[in-house]
């Protein structure tokens, strides 16, 4: 697992599924997010913040398939994390913080936290803009 030895004191990086699919590993095995389109250097993304709609939940609640505005991704370990409100059902819009396990062909995260955001349309509507703003301004 990539979590051993990582400093997870820094905040998670907000990303979309399509951005995470374009990540690559450096010589130390860390996932790096290329940000050339924003004129910024690559950014290590051991811990990410993603938002999306739950498509499916496996029978034991361990894995969740989600989709954001750019593509789909999988969240593992959903049964072992704190959840703000019950959120593990298809159709719910949720936030997930997770460790990046894989980026291609589809991102896979190990959940650290999940929270339902379904009650606020603002969260869904602003998410893409929040992510873009972050990458335009984060050095």
Automatic annotation (TrEMBL):
GO terms for cellular component: cytosol; nuclear speck. It holds the Pfam family RMI2. Component of the RMI complex, containing at least TOP3A, RMI1 and RMI2. The RMI complex interacts with BLM. Belongs to the RMI2 family. It is found in: Nucleus. Keywords: DNA replication, DNA-binding, Nucleus. This is RecQ-mediated genome instability protein 2. GO terms for molecular function: DNA binding. The keyword Nucleus applies. Essential component of the RMI complex, a complex that plays an important role in the processing of homologous recombination intermediates. It is required to regulate sister chromatid segregation and to limit DNA crossover. Essential for the stability, localization, and function of BLM, TOP3A, and complexes containing BLM. In the RMI complex, it is required to target BLM to chromatin and stress-induced nuclear foci and mitotic phosphorylation of BLM. The keyword DNA-binding applies. GO terms for biological process: DNA repair; DNA replication; maintenance of rDNA; negative regulation of double-strand break repair via homologous recombination; regulation of sister chromatid segregation. The gene is LOC129342588.
